[in-house]
Design goal:
The structure holds two protein chains of two kinds. By secondary structure, chain A is α/β, with parallel strands linked by helices. Chain A has a single domain, classed as Class I glutamine amidotransferase (GATase) domain (Rossmann fold, 3-Layer(aba) Sandwich). Chain A contains five helices and eleven strands; from the N terminus they run E-H-E-E-H-E-H-E-E-E-E-H-E-E-E-H. A nine-stranded mixed beta sheet of chain A has the order 2-1-3-4-11-10-9-6-7, sandwiched between helices. In chain A, strands 5-8 form a two-stranded antiparallel ribbon. The longest helix of chain A has 11 residues. Chain B is an alpha+beta fold. In chain B, the strands form five sheets. Chain B has a seven-stranded mixed beta sheet with strand order 8-10-7-11-9-12-13. A seven-stranded mixed beta sheet of chain B has the order 23-25-22-26-24-27-28, sandwiched between helices. In chain B, a hairpin with a 2-residue loop joins strand 2 and strand 3. The chains are: A alpha/beta, B alpha+beta. The interface between A and B is medium-sized, with 33 and 34 residues.
Chain lengths: 220, 743
């Protein structure tokens, strides 16, 4: 399986994601922001970082990058896409996922391991997780406070589209939301970083359960 | 303004101006005078410290690059090396803390990049005045935000550091940033300009008026007037820096550069003249070719501007186009601004005319001032300490809780959670331990790093404190299981023109040098920050040591956290007696900064440290911590808190310890410092194995066992873990007036 990792100016988890893809046993493919070409990959990870310096608003400029047109097409055609942290922010800015990520309520950057619960396993990125499994995943962000209007939140809950939920909310997210998916369930955005816990020497490889899910080939 | 006022305003003395006349054989113009002003400042020219710095040992096995380059480099094995350096940004941070700290981080990252290494870790050593003053809280909060704001965005994890609060730092905070880079030994680059006719390429951001004469500003005392020099402080753009890192690393990978140098203090002037002086060549720069972000800049402003996120590269002419294309790919400005020349001058041109021309070797050859080292009288006064004058505080529960809640000893979580310490996916041991540990991907190797400073100790005894600072770093690396390799240092002192300041500088260096020799950790890079004074006086003499070490098998490391119920807890002695002199306890509980801590026994300390390191590296011990600020009981409490497990001290051992040599008092035994002891824990199954291994230790004692949810020290002290946690885990930014956001 070939998995693409987008690289925007200012992405800084791109190399970690490429490394994690290798650890998964898949072939990592770098997708440069200025090339409107997904190079025939089977899945795409939009990694974290500060694309375009987070100037203006996180993700607001990246969504206009050339690579986004084929990525949007891929996503709308059911291709598996995982946005992590800044990647999640970019996917909401591109309207591939609903809602927005606001400044943490604590008004500070927060970097720590948090416990989350897997709320939906019928996505290509969580199919290997047990229902309601608890994972300890790292977060590191300034704007991870998920916001959506009450109607959207209700829909997300009704349609079981909350994929990860914080057991200890680090940022004030509505409904303790740590990750959601789109209607087609193929596009998932999460604030925690599974790629950072993909190696036992780093103390945990729990993140591989999320990343390896996509290898199961599930297009739910 | 007459001539003398002009050069005085630029920070040059009469003597220095006369020397310039002599060297040039003619009067300099304003541009040339500016070049000398910045290159002969203490910050660039080390004119007060150079003779003293010669005392440091610089070589040893594995040292690939000592001082004189942008960073020192040591080998860690399997073809990998670490490039590392620590640098101060004290003065800018005193005036504009967010940007001062942020650009300090940016600057040290470029030093590492200039060696061709990928920056992989940051550490910050910080000092502020007490938190009961609003200004200090503001500086602290904004410095931490600035470090996070820059480091998080640029994608280099901040994995360690330290912070201390003392009245001596009020108004003159210390902000020292250290960066570590990883590189293949064969890929090292140097900054020497070579090849007459090669091109000088400026990469990165455009040049503006920010930071004009910043180096001169940094080499002066802070006064009320300093506030008006806010425009001397640069503004950072971590996004541009991230692009610069990726661009330069790709340029080097493609073998497109002859040499590389970062632009820091004094901008193009400093970089170009250093590159030229090292290569024994000249460099001509055309100021008109420098891409500018504002109009109407004078040539002298262009060449000394300290605009951030820029690098200077020497490039062969046939590769220049590819270099510029690469810059464009990364959204950076690349410009051919000059060429390497045979004449040996740094020559600035503008509008086809020569605007200034000075031999590069003269700029690199700042005058040197050697002064007499005279013991200042204050030492006799502060070193006096009568134990009988220190009342026994009685209630030790209260004392411990008070100490754990003090800003100097409480949890650093509220700081390091604002820093991304995991980006890069290499961090094995996180902030909060004795040292940070990272892995080298694709190998079993790991490396560890720590920063340490002991300002109060150096104030009480500059030489002993200097040695203790290096020994402390050595112990911290040993605790995590790393073999110490080498150090970088940042010497934060007051004015060397005052006898007291010069004595502290000279003596601290002597102590550090002795320790570096005994511990076999050469100094491979460093930075000097003098004139850390306000109208209220000088800061504590605070040499900060950044030490790196290697782990052959990174999976075998230790942390302070107690890990298993029932583990045996063992204290390993180093030899020297513990004392209250200069201790945290004496300051926090009794409000005294006094006494003369005993000189560290370097060789005994090394032997014990090496033993602890071997215990960890062999996989026998996974829990280790050194007894440092706060003494043995605070160290034990830290271990209990980190592991979330209780501890009980063995009653008999405790009474024996209290009655031990030089003690006789519970508070000395509990909170005394300076002995260089270690605490380790093992499961009881491995207790016999540990005893065998400890046969070579100067001494050890099994002091108690892990378990329960209380922290119990015989009949003297009994606190619940919950109470300990409430005292220790405090939010340093939640203080009155400390939580609001200014930006």
């Amino acid at each position: 399986m070939r998995i693409g990792v987008t690289v925007f100016p200012g992405s800084n988890c791109d190399r970690d994601a490429l490394y994690a893809v290798e650890r998964m046993g898949a072939e990592p493919v770098e997708l440069w922001h200025a090339d409107a070409d997904l190079k025939g990959v089977d899945a795409v990870i939009v990694p974290g970082g500060f694309s375009y310096g987070d100037y203006l608003r996180p993700g607001a400029i990246a969504r206009f990058a050339k690579v986004m047109a084929p990525l949007e097409y891929f996503a709308r055609s059911g291709g598996p896409v995982l946005g992590v942290c800044n990647g999640f922010q970019i996917l909401t800015e591109a309207h591939l996922l609903p809602g927005a990520l606001l400044r943490n309520t604590g008004m500070r950057f927060v970097c720590r391991r948090v416990r989350v619960r897997v709320e939906a396993t019928n996505t290509p990125w969580t199919v290997l997780c047990e229902p309601y499994e608890e994972l300890a995943l790292p977060v590191a962000h300034n704007e991870g406070n998920y916001f959506a209007d009450p109607a959207t939140l209700a829909r997300l809950e009704d349609e079981w589209r909350v994929v990860l939920r914080y057991l200890e909310n680090p940022n004030g997210s509505a409904n303790d939301i740590a990750g959601i998916c789109n209607e087609g369930r193929n596009v998932v955005g999460v604030m925690p970083h599974p790629e950072r816990v993909s190696d036992p020497v780093l103390g945990s490889d729990e993140g591989l359960r999320i990343l390896r899910s996509v290898l199961a080939g599930a297009r739910v | 303004m007459n001539l003398q006022e002009t050069y005085s305003a630029l920070g040059l003395s009469d003597f220095e101006y006369d020397r310039i006349l002599e060297l040039l054989g003619r009067p300099p113009n304003y541009l040339e005078l500016s070049l000398f002003s910045v290159m002969w400042s203490e910050h660039c020219g080390y004119k007060n410290s150079r003779p003293l710095l010669r005392r440091f040992p610089n070589f040893g096995p594995g040292v690939l690059q000592g001082p004189g380059e942008n960073a020192g480099v040591v080998e860690v094995g399997e073809g990998w090396a670490l490039a590392f350096k620590v640098e101060s940004h004290n003065h800018p941070s005193a005036i504009e803390p967010y940007e001062g700290a942020a650009t300090g981080v940016g600057g040290i990252i470029r030093d590492i990049l200039a060696m061709g290494a990928r920056p992989v870790a940051l550490l910050d050593s910080l000092r502020f005045g007490p938190m009961n003053e609003e200004r200090n809280r503001y500086l602290f909060r904004e410095v931490v935000r600035g470090i996070g704001g820059y480091g998080n965005a640029v994608g280099v994890p901040t994995v360690g550091g330290e912070v201390d609060f003392a009245p001596a730092y009020s108004g003159n905070p210390l902000v020292n940033a250290m960066c570590v880079g990883l590189i293949r030994t064969e890929d090292l680059v140097r900054s020497r300009a070579t090849g007459v006719g090669n091109l000088v390429v400026l990469l990165g951001s455009k040049t503006g008026r920010d930071g004009i004469h910043g180096a001169t500003f940094a080499s002066d005392e802070l006064t009320e007037e300093s506030e008006s020099r806010r425009s001397n402080v640069q503004v950072g753009d971590p996004f541009a820096e991230k692009m610069l890192i990726e661009c330069c690393l790709e340029l080097l990978e493609e073998d497109l550069l002859v040499s590389l140098q970062d632009l820091g203090a004094a901008g193009i002037t400093s970089s170009a003249s250093e590159m030229a002086a090292k290569g024994g060549v000249g460099i001509e720069v055309d100021a008109e070719k420098v891409p500018l972000r504002e109009s109407g800049m004078e040539p002298y402003e262009i060449v000394i501007s300290e605009s951030q996120e820029r690098m200077l590269a020497i490039v062969e002419p046939d590769k220049a186009e590819r270099v510029l294309e690469m810059a464009e790919r990364y959204g950076l400005v690349g410009a051919m601004i000059g060429r390497v020349a045979g004449h040996g001058d740094l020559r600035v041109k503008s509008g086809g005319e020569t605007a200034g021309s000075v031999p590069a070797e003269h700029l690199a050859d700042a005058p040197v001032y050697e002064r007499e080292v005279v013991r200042p009288p204050y030492l006799d006064e502060v070193q006096r300490l009568e134990l009988t004058e220190i009342p026994d505080p009685g209630n030790y529960n209260e004392v411990l809780l008070r100490m754990l809640a003090h800003p100097n000893l409480c949890s650093r979580r509220s700081i390091f959670e604002q820093y991304d310490h995991e980006v890069g996916a290499d961090t094995v041991v996180f902030p909060g331990a004795d040292a940070a540990v990272m892995r080298v991907k694709g190998t079993k190797l790991g490396y560890a790093m720590t920063t340490d400073g002991r300002g109060r100790h150096c104030f009480l005894d500059p030489r002993g404190g200097g040695a203790a600072t290096v020994a402390e770093a050595y112990r911290n690396l040993s605790c995590v299981g790393a073999r110490p390799l080498a150090i970088t240092n940042c010497l934060n002192f007051g004015s060397p023109e005052k006898p007291e300041g010069y004595y502290q500088l000279a003596e601290s260096i002597e102590g550090m040098a002795q320790a570096c020799e005994s511990l076999e950790t050469p100094v491979v890079s460093g930075n000097v920050s003098l004139y850390n004074e306000t109208e209220a006086g000088a800061v504590y003499p605070t040499p900060v040591v950044g030490m790196v070490g290697v782990l052959e098998d990174v999976s075998r490391h230790a942390t302070p956290a107690l890990k298993r119920e029932g583990d045996m807890v063992v204290v390993i002695w180093s030899g020297p007696e513990m004392t209250l002199a200069g201790s945290e306890y004496l300051e926090i509980v009794h409000g005294k900064v006094a006494g003369r801590p005993p000189e560290p026994d370097l060789l005994a300390g090394k032997k014990t440290s090496d033993l602890v390191r071997r215990l960890v590296a062999q996989g026998l011990v996974d829990t280790a911590h050194d007894v440092s600020g706060g003494g043995e009981i605070v160290a034990l409490a830290e271990m209990a808190l980190a592991g979330g497990l209780g501890f009980e001290y063995d009653e008999d051992v405790l009474e024996r310890m209290i009655a031990g040599p030089g003690r006789g008092r519970a508070d000395v035994a509990f909170f005394g410092e300076g002995a260089g002891d270690f605490i380790v824990a093992v499961s009881w199954e491995r207790w016999y194995e540990l005893q065998d291994a400890l046969a070579e230790a100067p001494g050890y004692d099994q002091i108690g066992t892990v378990g329960g949810d209380r922290f119990k020290i015989g009949s003297h002290l009994d606190v619940s873990l919950q109470d300990l946690r409430e005292a220790y885990e405090r939010d340093l930014f939640g203080e009155p007036g400390g939580a609001e956001v200014a930006h």
